[in-house]
Specification:
Layout lengths: L1 H23 L8 E2 L1 E4 L12 E5 L2 E4 L8 E6 L4 E2 L10 E3 L1 E8 L11 E4 L6 E3 L5 E6 L12 E11 L1
Parallel strand pairs: 2-6
Antiparallel strand pairs: 1-8, 2-7, 3-4, 3-5, 5-7, 8-12, 9-10, 9-11, 11-12
Amino acid sequence: MTTINSKLKKITYFVSISIFFLAAVNVNAQINSLGIAIPTEVAYDNPENGDTLCSKQGGIVLCTETYDPSILGVVTTEASVAFRHEDDENLPLVISQGNAIVKVSSQNGNIEVGDLITSSETAGVGQKADLNGFVLGMALEPYQSDDPNAVGSVYISLNIHPV
């Protein structure tokens, strides 16, 4: 009996280690985002990395209002962690907490490290927040442009909340 228990323990140990390594094969890491991304159905075509999304009556769309209280998160094309099911492989990944690349403009002034970022009237593009209202998070790098219509991107710490 002792020999059988000993063999079962060895087999259980081997199977446990094997499963761990098999599961680890599917882990991906990327420096463009840090957080958990969720596949999300959006109500617009061609979602792009850094799009700022809002939850509206018609579905998940690009934000088009400043300080929009329905800010949901940001599209990320290369998430560090993502939960996917085979049925949702074609859905864009959306991150709501963590760090991510976000499209921005200088419509409300140049962005400095530590500035709060909010939604803007330009579809899916964030801007520097200078009033009270809902924000997407805080800039972790600067963005400067003399053209307020130009769109760039910055890495931000996502923390959707009112200020």
